[in-house]
Amino acid sequence: MSTEQSEKRDLRVVVHYPPAAEPYRKEAPATETVGQLKSDVLAAFGLKEGPQPDGSNVSYTLYFGKRDLQDMSETLGALAGHSEELQFKLAQQITQGAA
């Protein structure tokens, strides 16, 4: 498969978030970025990053296998390689504010 063909394909995406009853599922173009996916996932689960009323700070990280995805410009196609389905896990991190 050429690069042009692989960029035009759609991938099945599944994101597991332990507190949610069901995982997030969608068909996504291989050209979609990790940042776009993360934004969609947070909206779908009703989550927001940033300061909370109690002074803590909440952030979320997407994991692909054991790898935490830090490069928000990486494409899903680059992660998928020859696979047609991607499985992610979303994890919450809470940083306590100053007491």
In brief, what are we looking at here?
The chain is α+β, with helices and mostly antiparallel strands. The chain is 23% helix and 36% strand. It has three helices and six strands.
Summary tags:
single chain; 23% helix; Ubiquitin-like (UB roll); alpha+beta; disordered N terminus; 6 strands; 99 residues; 6-stranded mixed beta sheet
Could you explain how this protein is built, in words?
It is a single chain. The protein is of the alpha+beta class. The protein has a single domain, classed as Ubiquitin-like (UB roll). Helices cover 23% and strands 36% of the residues. It contains 3 helices and 6 strands, in the order αββαβββαβ. Strands 1, 2, 3, 4, 5 and 6 form a 6-stranded mixed beta sheet that branches. β3 (50-51) and β4 (57-64) form a beta hairpin.
Write the layout of secondary structure elements.
Layout: H1 3-8, E1 10-16, E2 24-29, H2 34-45, E3 50-51, E4 57-64, E5 67-68, H3 76-80, E6 85-95
Q: Could you state the CATH homologous superfamily?
A: Phosphatidylinositol 3-kinase Catalytic Subunit, Chain A, domain 1
Q: Based on the structure, what is the oligomeric state of the protein chains?
A: single chain
What's the structural domain tally? 1
Report the CATH architecture. Roll
What composes the largest sheet?
6 strands, mixed
- Extended strand count: 6
Shape: elongated
**Class by alpha and beta content:** alpha+beta
Q: Provide the helix percentage.
A: 10-25%
Radius of gyration: 15 Å
CATH topology: Ubiquitin-like (UB roll)
The number of helical runs is: 3
Series of secondary-structure elements, N-terminal to C-terminal: HEEHEEEHE
Mean pLDDT: 91
CATH class: Alpha Beta
Low-confidence stretches: 1-5
